Amino acid sequence: MAGDELRQRFETLEAEVLPLADSPALDTIRRRGRRRRWAVRAGLLSAVLAGAVVVRGAEQWATRPELGPVAPVPTTQPAPAPPTTATPTTAAPAAPTVPPTTAAAATRVELRPDGLGVAGFGTAEREAMERLERRLGRPDERGAWKGATPFGTCPGPVRAVRWGRLYVLFTSGPTRYAARGWHLFTYQVDSIQRTKVDPASSGPNPPDPPPLRGGSPRTEAGVGVGSTLADLRRAYGRRLHVSYGEPGMEYRYRVDLGAAGELSGVLTGGTPGATVFSLTAGAGCGE
Amino acid sequence: MAERDFDELYASNYGRLVVQVFAITGNLADAEDAVQEAFARASVRWRRIGGYDSPEAWVRRVALNLAVSGRRRARRLREVLSRAPALPPVPPLPADSLGLVEALKALPLPFRQVLVLHYLADLPVERVAGELGIAVGTAKSRLSRAREALARQLVDGEEEVGSGRR
Lengths: 287, 166
Hints:
Low-confidence stretches of chain A: 63-103
CATH architecture of one domain in chain A: Sandwich
Mean pLDDT of chain B: 83
Distance between the termini of chain A: 92 Å
Radius of gyration of chain B: 17 Å
Strand content of chain B: under 5%
CATH topology of one domain in chain A: protein yfey like fold
Radius of gyration of chain A: 30 Å
CATH class of one domain in chain A: Mainly Beta
Shape of chain A: elongated
Number of strands of chain B: 0
Shape of chain B: globular
Distance between the termini of chain B: 59 Å
Strand order of the largest sheet of chain A: 2-5-6-7-12-11-10-9
Strand content of chain A: 15-25%
Largest sheet of chain B: none
Mean pLDDT of chain A: 78
Oligomer: heterodimer
Structural class of chain B: mainly alpha
Number of domains of chain B: 2
Number of helices of chain B: 9
Order of helices and strands of chain B: HHHHHHHHH
């Protein structure tokens, strides 16, 4: 079939179909366009909301309370010392009288060089716990140690409580904050679950502790676990000191805040994009 | 581009685009729906689309994409499920045009596309290649093979009609 003949047949088809085509008014077309645009926007909004719900659900799932070395709820009386050292005490769940903690709840305190805002270093354990639980809800994990602890060798027996990524440590040993009595002496925001590290283990290849996920409490300047070294520099400028070396041959940082104290911790590296792996303040525990 | 330009585009191209999409899909209702949807989308993006060299090409491309996508199939499924009386896919047409539509239906989609763009949209081969995103050489050879295939289909169809008459 010649091209011209084919073209003629197509032209005939067009002439015959054109009158059959139902042509709606322009307003109808425009309304249809607007309806579709709103539908697309509503769909996008729904997708975003659904995504947020899923992410929040996943976050809560990821930061659900895990079984750890749990001790009875602290009282004003020190817990009876275990016969051996470096061994977690027996487990007992905390009374569910306060709302469960979440990753978001852990951001309701401020990491300060002199404590956690609502509870400064030196605050008695019972009082500090009441204040912290009012702010953060029920802890995810509790533990108690004597001698070596997952946090190093501390000034005395240690009780640790964890909300999300925040470990809060109490001791009955003497510190610069209090000579006696169980009191808050340090905190640590971490990327790993320290309490899963057996402090008695001295093998060459101890298993990696599980990671801690979820939100991190932050300093007044907005720095927390996950912040970059560049963020630290922006926030603290010349008060920030970064070093590399012992212990563990790692990058460490220290923020000198004068009389208020200091913040310190471990970095994932030494480049500006390296992130804060842990952050601590207070009397601390040696290695 | 002003709103008036959109109105003109719609008035001067709606019917022709319906015919083009109908020639590719073989279903007039689907073709109308796809072209109306394409114009509706163009209407809310007119500030951008109006600045294109050929807004008509944009509308045609969107309409063709819609027509051959599953959206039309989904609509047909809804019609079946609702038991609503569906419109006949091909309107009553004279035998020659009906034969052409049936012959086109028997061709692969790429063949239908080049034939419709060249013979119905009156595009030169270079622009056919541009609209389909293929090389000019590919468009030429595809058009040649499509023409041969269509001619065979038309002859076969006419023979069937002829033998049916006997």
